[in-house]
Design goal:
The protein contains eight helices and no strands. By secondary structure, the protein is mainly alpha-helical. Helix 5 packs antiparallel against helix 6 and helix 6 packs antiparallel against helix 7. The structure holds protoporphyrin IX containing FE (HEM). The site of protoporphyrin IX containing FE (HEM) has 28 residues, from helix 5, helix 6, helix 7 and helix 8.
Length: 286
């Protein structure tokens, strides 16, 4: 591997780690209710470096510094990669740049509008896409040309579930079903309360995902095509069981921010694991 390629790979890893920490830190900021620690944007209390009078300011300010570092790192990475690759991939890199610019703008709007739930979820969704894209750049010196449908399907399944989770969180439905496995003492509560329905949807999708992986794992012993994924399916199954336990932990702890952060960490890992299954796709960009 030549020196420039090596530098690009290291920078991609650094960018990935920075975005990972940024997302988890953002999760903590929300968990501690510090999202408006800096109520203005792009300055914080009208200053580049504010007075650190409360923990909210400290948490939110660190969030912004992390965002700055991650964005700069991604900017340089995009530049290096753009010079090296061909036209097809360049379009993807430009799309990623567009996502980054949108995300920066959206971050500001979310603060200025005092954290509207819908936009906050959109901000989270875009963060997941950028994070996933950076992982793709780190993992593959050349993007897979025809990604296999199964990893893509699994990726979007987990992406959908993560967005449901973010909706639960930002529409304050985390404790709408405070008990587990029942919800308000019933298996299927008769309700029209949208928060309860949202919460149940998040749980039910988790069970659905678990069943899908049981079927895939069983299928990997029957169908030759699925054999290569067998170990990964097992990892997913164990991970989902842990994630359910962590979800229950969130309820028992009444939304403890640290436990919620671990829940978000697992959600990120599921996305990365799904993307890494693309290594089984043979064709690459030429
Ligand atoms: C595949 C399984 C699951 C995944 C990938 C997942 C993912 C997520 C994500 C990404 C969030 C949002 C975190 C954020 O906004 O930063 C979330 C929130 C949440 N999840 Fe899950 N989840 C899963 C299963 C479950 C299960 C089974 C439960 C319940 C037993 C659960 C309970 C919750 C709760 C209560 C919240 C809201 C926390 C809050 O309001 O602070 N999750 N989930």
């Amino acid at each position: 591997m030549n020196k420039l390629l090596m530098l690009e790979k290291r920078l991609a890893l650094l960018t990935l780690v920075l975005f990972g920490i940024l997302i988890l830190w953002g999760n903590l900021v929300a968990g501690f209710g510090a999202g408006l620690g800096c109520p203005d944007w792009p300055l914080c209390h009208g200053k580049i470096i504010p007075e650190f009078r409360s923990y909210e300011v400290i948490l939110e300010y660190i969030h912004r510094i992390l965002a700055l570092l991650a964005s700069l790192s991604l900017g340089v990475l995009l530049y290096l990669r753009y010079r090296r690759v061909e036209k097809n991939e360049r379009l993807w890199l430009l799309l990623l740049l567009l996502f980054l610019l949108l995300q920066i703008l959206l971050g500001g709007i979310v603060v200025l509008l005092q954290l509207p739930s819908g936009l906050t979820v959109l901000h989270f969704a875009l963060a997941l896409l950028i994070f996933s894209f950076v992982f793709l750049l780190w993992r593959f010196p050349e993007l897979p040309r025809k990604p296999a449908p199964l990893p893509l399907f699994l990726y979007f399944l987990f992406f959908f579930q993560a967005i449901l989770g973010a909706l639960v969180r930002h529409y304050k439905a985390g404790l709408s079903c405070p008990d587990f496995p029942t919800c308000l003492g019933e298996w299927i509560p008769r309700t029209e309360d949208p928060r309860i329905i949202l919460h149940l949807f998040h749980r039910t999708t988790a069970y659905g995902i678990f069943i899908i992986f049981i079927m895939l794992y069983a299928g990997s012993w029957i169908f030759e095509k699925l054999q290569v994924y067998r170990r990964a399916f097992l990892h997913f199954l164990l991970g989902i069981l842990l994630q359910v336990a962590i979800g229950v932990g969130i309820l028992h702890s009444r939304l403890n921010p640290w436990i919620t952060m671990v829940h978000a960490l697992f959600a990120l890992l599921f996305l990365l694991l799904s993307i890494s299954l693309l290594r089984f796709s043979q064709e690459k960009v030429q």
